[in-house]
Amino acid sequence: MRYWLMKSEPDDCSIDDLAAMPQQTVAWHGVRNYQARNFMRDSMRPGDLAFFYHSSCPRPGIAGIAQVASLAYPDASQFDPASRFFDPKSVPEQPRWLNVDVRFERKLELIPLLELRRHAALAKMRLLQPASRLSITPVAPEEWQFILATLARDA
DNA sequence: GCCAACGTTGGC
DNA sequence: GCCAACGTTGGC
């Protein structure tokens, strides 16, 4: 079982939005980066846990925990011309983009990005590397444990 | 709104 | 296969 960090713009889907979904589950659609797609396709498995990170917002940081709830399967939005994630170059016979389902696990008091940066134990986190823009990144077990034990408080 | 970093595209 | 142009990300 692995650990992840998944970015979401709260205007789009916040941790509260996830908690309010039917089954508290959402298809993690819209990933249009090959590295992030490959993480979902090759390494994510149901039961994996992920920090739910709020990005591109006034208070960026970890807002909760989610659980991977499915294997990767074709992302429906790539075939929907009305979607902003529509990809005219992707054909149903050979879908280019995949997504997993993600289920709400728990909400945390926001752990701000600046707080994460303060801790030497987290210095190697992918999220914290210069210009790291990947929307899905692996989290080392030690990093996961450190954040849970030291910084995480239920909200 | 700015801007640096990075990924993707497409002409050659 | 190179590489310049362009688009996107995301913190500030």
TrEMBL record:
Pfam families: EVE. Residues 2-149 form the EVE domain. SUPFAM superfamilies: PUA domain-like. CDD domains: EVE (cd21133). InterPro entries: 5hmC_binding, EVE_domain, PUA-like_sf, THYN1-like_EVE. PANTHER family: THYMOCYTE NUCLEAR PROTEIN 1. This is EVE domain-containing protein. It comes from Uliginosibacterium aquaticum.
